[in-house]
Amino acid sequence: MVNIYDTANQLEQVLRQTNEFLALKGAYGKIKQDPLAFAMFKNFQKKQIEFQKKQAAGTLKDEDINQLKDLSERVQKNPLIVDLMQKEQQLGQLIDEISQILLKPIDELYQE
Question: Which of 44, 47, 70, 81 makes the best surface tag, with the fewest CB within 10 Å?
Answer without folding.
Answer: 70
